[in-house]
Amino acid sequence: xxxxxxxxxxxxxxxxxxxxxxxxxxxxxxxxxxxxxxxxxxxxxxxxxxxxxxxxxxxxxxxxxxxxxxxxxxxxxxxxxxxxxxxxxxxxxxxxxxxxxxxxxxxxxxxxxxxxxxxxxxxxxxxxxxxxxxxxxxxxxxxxxxxxxxxxxxxxxxxxxxxxxxxxxxxxxxxxxxxxxxxxxxxxxxxxxxxxxxxxxxxxxxxxxxxxxxxxxxxxxxxxxxxxxxxxxxxxxxxxxxxxxxxxxxxxxxxxxxxxxxxxxxxxxxxxxxxxxxxxxxxxxxxxxxxxxxxxxxxxxxxxxxxxxxxxxxxxxxxxxxxxxxxxxxxxxxxxxxxxxxxxxxxxxxxxxxxxxxxxxxxxxxxxxxxxxxxxxxxxxxxxxxxxxxxxxxxxxxxxxxxxxxxxxxxxxxxxxxxxxxxxxxxxxxxxxxx
Length: 435
Known about the structure:
Elements: H1 3-56, E1 70-74, E2 83-92, E3 97-110, E4 113-122, H2 124-159, H3 161-172, H4 189-238, H5 245-275, E5 283-286, H6 287-297, H7 299-304, E6 308-313, E7 318-321, H8 323-339, E8 346-351, E9 355-361, H9 389-399, E10 403-409, E11 412-418, E12 426-428
Parallel strand pairs: 6-8, 10-12
Antiparallel strand pairs: 1-4, 2-3, 3-4, 5-7, 8-9, 9-11, 10-11
Helix pairs in contact: 1-2, 4-5, 5-9, 6-8, 8-9
């Protein structure tokens, strides 16, 4: 939910509570004031009644023409003096309905006899007045609430317009384009300071990105050249017939170490480029077809290890990613399945529109499954492995909205790619060795 919507919702809820409490309080205050006025008039009539009774030592209802306005009842015994106000309903035969009255009850002697006197005053006009006041108050408070809500929304929208403009420009900002982040100046101090901080941050990020990009490009070029030269010289030495057996073993160790260094350099540079988003052009790639083609290309290796390949290709699994990374993804998956398979084992490919699963037989690894996708983590001691294969797989999947899932059950290791972006790997059971 957006900040303005959340703010307006809180403001509306708070305003409704305040206005309801205000309306209730106003209603009660108006009712008390009107009742106080009615009771004051009843006390005046009480005084008139007592004055009339003292003067004439009798009472006649002839001066009063309002039906049921005064009712006198003799009281046989002594009572506690005082007065009491109550609400009561009296039948009105003119309107054929019960009419509300406010009643004052008190006791007074007339001609030596104690009487209970009840003086009543109609509340119809009072109730109508309260209803009119209440409806008017609710109407005006409702209009005021709507007006304040509308004004608050418009005002907030205008005040937060620079923030949303900044947000849209930050979203559209791309480090790879090389153009600086351009933000409109704002007259609001907080937004102006925010724009300054974001501009400086974007400039620093762009500078660091360009520096890292140049480093990876230079490292990729400059390091490969001497490594290739070392490998070439070592290959020439291996072919020499003048070497002793010990010298051949030493040179072979150097050759294997240089090859390992070359693979390690390529893997780390590839991870750095993926992290920096240096692979821009994405296409819809049929990963199922790429995987099957790579298995065909590695047929000699599969045959040498006496592996059986089977497949269940119901639908092609496609992803949006650069073709180079797609090739790297399937290559690492297949290399992992072959390298850590058993002699005479099996490889199975299962493909659908939503998942692509590559399963292989193998021993249960001893590495913690939660660390298999980390860099330089290997599930078994393997001289050929540099521990970056599954790290590259994870990084590619995370960068291009693919999920990677691992399961081990009954001697079968399964790596599954899914369309849904998983965010983190789900690892069940035992681990699998990383390439």
